[in-house]
Amino acid sequence: MNDAPILLLGANGQVGGEALPLLRSLGHLVSLTRAELDLTDPPAIRAAVRDLRPRWIVNAAAYTAVDKADSDSESAFAINGDAPRILGEEAHRIGAPVIHFSTDYVFSGDGNRPWTEDDPTGPLGVYGASKLAGEQGLAGSGATHFILRTSWVYGAHGENFLRRILKLALEREELKIVDDQYGAPTWSRTLASLAVACILRGEKDALMGGDRPAEAVQSISGIYHACSAGFTTWFGFASEFVRMAQMALPGRVFARLTPIPSSAFPTAAKRPVNSRMNCEKLAHTFGFDMPVWQDSLSEVMHEVLAGNNI
Ligand SMILES: NC(=O)c1ccc[n+]([C@@H]2O[C@H](COP(=O)([O-])OP(=O)(O)OC[C@H]3O[C@@H](n4cnc5c(N)ncnc54)[C@H](OP(=O)(O)O)[C@@H]3O)[C@@H](O)[C@H]2O)c1
Which protein residues are within 6 Å of ligand 1, measured from CB? Predict the structure, then answer.
């Protein structure tokens, strides 16, 4: 790769934190956290990209507080909607591809068929609507882009369902967990590896075609579904990791898990019932097979337990 840097945004988050060491291993990396570049500040975004002139942009930053977004739509739309469009406009000026993450929450959750990239969107709340606006803004910016739509992100670090439930399971006797939303828990590190795969594909094609990566991979620019293989419910997911924790820590007492319907756990923002996503386009284009969710979970639990990271 030439000396122009990869620009990473959101390195303090789950996906960004996993992407940081992987992208660093590719060469020159510049990582800007919120303190260094606030994505609610459009002139600052433009200035950063113009100054750095990155070869690639990886945007792992987002407003991810799903329930809070409903009462804070201005921030959610600024970070999730406007910022990706502005990044795209600036990336287009300098010929840098943008790797961006989006969500199953762009869908309504109707039916029980896994969603494909061509299915109509229909977000149920502000978070999903703001992420959809970001997808559309980036896609319309003219920049070569890979929008990786994923679901139920978790890992050994950061704020996520697995870490929250494991901690509560050690404090309480019973935990009631929603058992009628279907999706695939997806490891943050898998998504970081996928960003690397996009870059390597772009660099390889550029090398073979004599173009810059943005031109070399323009024909495969677009949206890709990228979640673990298989599916479960939040209750199924929690049951599996609490079972693994119990086996690894026989001396500890964990809460009893009870399945409940979503109606018994009201939240500010409505969640899609069916978050299953079809990832065939990703496998076909990149040869990247997403792991089965239970396999990733074993690896994450190994890290969580080895690091006493509950
Ligand atoms: N989490 C999920 O379950 C899930 C599911 C589907 C899709 N996704 C998508 O996957 C991507 C990565 O999610 P994640 O779980 O890794 O998110 P995360 O852990 O919540 O991290 C988000 C990052 O964005 C940064 N950020 C927030 N507001 C910012 C601002 N105004 N300026 C600059 N940076 C800002 C945060 O900075 P601070 O650390 O300073 O707050 C944080 O580092 C996102 O696009 C998300 O929409 C996530």
Answer: 10, 12-16, 33-34, 38-40, 60-64, 79, 101, 103, 131, 150-153, 158, 188
| Residue from 33, 58, 124, 153 to probe ligand 1 pocket by mutation (most atoms less than 8 Å from CB) | 153
Q: Which two tokens stand for residue 62?
A: 């987002």
Three-state SS for 182? Answer: strand
User: Which pLDDT belongs to residue 3?
Assistant: 81
96 DSSP assignment: -
The mean pLDDT value of the chain amounts to 95
The structural domains of the chain, ordered by start, are 6-159+186-229+277-291 (3.40.50.720)
Is the distance from CB of 75 to CB of 133 less than 8 angstroms?
Answer: no
- The span from the CA of 82 to the CA of 124, in Å, is 19
Reduce the DSSP state of residue 181 to 3 states and report it: coil
Question: pLDDT tens, 125-137?
Answer: 999 999 999 999 9
Proportion of the chain above pLDDT 70, given as a percent: 99
What's the pTM? 0.96
The two structure tokens encoding residue 188 = 């943050």
Ligand 1 centre distance from Cα of residue 61 (Å) = 4
Q: Which atom of ligand 1 is nearest to the CA of 16?
A: 16
154 noted as active-site residue: no
Q: Which ligand 1 atom is nearest residue 104's CA?
A: 6
Q: Which of 247, 257, 94, 265 is nearest to 172 (CA)?
A: 257
Task: Please give the structure tokens belonging to residue 206.
Answer: 């550029």
208-238: per-residue pLDDT in tens? 887 888 988 999 999 999 999 999 999 999 9
Quick one: pLDDT at residue 310? 72
